[in-house]
């Protein structure tokens, strides 16, 4: 929840998309190519991810299942954090320590659920995205959300994720880094990583281009191989 020392409101034109933190945490250069240079490339993994999200964003926006209300494609934002975006799924679970919801009896606790293709990752990118979604929900609904869930399509499994103070602090730090790059309009340089192999942007990014070699030299070398 918001604390008084954080009271600062961003203008809407300065808002970041929640998804930016996921791309940036995976690879700052990938973030720069997408959000500063407006480049995009699909591969089989991004297409699978889109299909999974379309399922999560089923047109049935709200449904009640027993003690649970399930809301899909819920728009969220936070003027305090300067971000906006969409939660795949937000569940409201009957719990007398929770909040009231108009038109429903009782009280409910809030559980954001983010859908991802593949498996749990080594990095924190999915956890940071989920944490940021929860922080927006906390501001909007004036509640505390101690836990969220990540659903991974490849293993058909939902993992509970504690939304810790540490991850919230890191999320704010990463948002600040993103703003600094955005203000400078600077796309971070290549820093090769394991994720390059499956990155949909690799043909635009050219991660194998040595720093001492020009793009022209690189292409000539690759064509002659
Ligand atoms: S290919 Fe590697 S360095 Fe380039 S954007 Fe993708 S992950 Fe980042």
From TrEMBL:
Cofactors named for this entry: [4Fe-4S] cluster; Mg(2+); Mn(2+); iron-sulfur cluster
Any matching Pfam family: Cas_Cas4
MF GO annotations: exonuclease activity; iron-sulfur cluster binding; metal ion binding
GO BP field: defense response to virus
Signal sequence, start to end: none
Keyword Iron-sulfur annotated: yes
EC annotation from Swiss-Prot or TrEMBL: 3.1.12.1
NCBIfam families assigned: cas4
Protein's UniProt name: CRISPR-associated exonuclease Cas4
The organism of origin for this protein: Mitsuokella jalaludinii
Organism taxonomic ancestry: Bacteria, Bacillati, Bacillota, Negativicutes, Selenomonadales
